[in-house]
Amino acid sequence: METGLIHIYTGEGKGKTTAAVGLAIRALSHGLRVCYVNFNKGGGKYVNTEVDTLEILGAKVIVATDQHPAFNADISAETNSKQTLNALGFIKELVRSADFDMLILDEILISVRDNFIQDKVLVDFIKNKPDSLELVLTGRGATGEVIEMADYVSEIVKVKHPYDNGIFSREGIEY
Q1: pLDDT tens digits, residue range 105-161?
Q2: How far apart are CA 111 and CA 129, in angstroms?
Q3: What is the set of domains in the chain, with CATH numbers?
């Protein structure tokens, strides 16, 4: 691809990661090279699902941070912030040297929303991406500046969810 565009999947609804993974599968099926990086999920049941399929199909998969501090009391916001900044530095070098066609930063927008990194850090990352790299950002709380930079913006709106009626995450559906 000559021009890599920027995609955002944001909002309170279910399906942001699933949309990004679907896009990655489409890219992989056309021979594109994909790197998927997750933030704020750590390992475990929320990562080792559809992401395993991406790896089997040939994507490079990176777990950039531990779980979000709201879901794991052993992880501080400061630790998450350091992990996020370190990961973005590593990823910046990786995409410059590894020649990926698509980079997915899953839940990176939460890192900005929850002040693990400043919006400026993500904006600078976007501005300095290789021109041909297709960049996909997911998570709740996309900022106005990041939205303005994007070519595709999808806001996933929750109208109704089983969790509201006491039905918790189900294997194969929510994770």
Answers
A1: 999 999 999 999 999 999 999 999 999 999 999 999 999 999 999 999 999 999 998
A2: 19
A3: 6-165 (3.40.50.300)
Kindly state the DSSP code that residue 165 receives in the 8-state scheme: G
Please give the distance of CA 50 from its chain centroid, rounded to a whole number: 13
Chain centroid, CA 165 distance in Å: 28
Give every strand in the sheet of 152-155, ordered side by side: 60-63, 34-38, 102-106, 134-138, 6-10, 152-155
Q: What is the DSSP letter of 76?
A: -
Partners of 6 in the beta sheet?
Answer: 135
DSSP 16-27: HHHHHHHHHHHH
Q: Where are the beta strands (DSSP E) in the chain?
A: 6-10, 34-38, 60-63, 102-106, 134-138, 152-155
